[in-house]
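Sample pair:
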Amino acid sequence: FTKFFLFADGLVSFFIITTALQSPISVITGGPGTGKTSIQKAILDIYRRQNPGGRIVCCAPNSTGVMISGM
């Protein structure tokens, strides 16, 4: 289980993405405009390329991030 608090920084984003791809469960959290949806989309795009047909479960308090990610 990994929990991330987001800050808009390229190196931090790289760390979040690579760590999330190695963890069975990740929680991505942060205020408005911190890049949560962008990080989620990047994680999902990479995962889908590496695991065609793999199972993905996304949860969110509202549908915005889930809809944008294409789930």
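The chain has three helices and two strands.
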